[in-house]
Amino acid sequence: MLESLMKPEDTVDFHIRWAWLKIAKMYNYEAAPHGLTQSTGFILLNIDPKQGTPSTSLGPLMGMEPTSLSRTLKNMQDRGWIEREEDKSDGRVSRIVLTEEGKRLRNISRKTVVSFNERVLEELSEEKLRHFKEVIQIIDQHTVRKAS
Asked: In what order do the strands lie in the sheet with 82-86?
């Protein structure tokens, strides 16, 4: 009975989805002049700028499906932002490494993320931030349990 009376804005996921869509829109707006998207910027941020990152590690780091990730990586490679290299210690592993242009774009992405976080943190007390992280951890626990 209670569920039929619940409005979308009364659910937890409504606010998470609403906030994430606004964040992604803002990141896409900031990224567009550089030829980036929120998704490509996020990938650049998850590649180790010094040693590269095994391609098999990127998907789990970002929660992306392998097909979507492969297509995006191919596009990024075609644009000269990344290269694939054979791992020196294990020839079966392909590492994704940043090119100089990829490093430059990664820095732009990093500055955008840091700036957004600084603006938000200016308005949050330590207590509010702690509570936010606690809520996110609870949500994470419930999504893991449901997905298993």
From this structure: 53-54, 94-98, 82-86
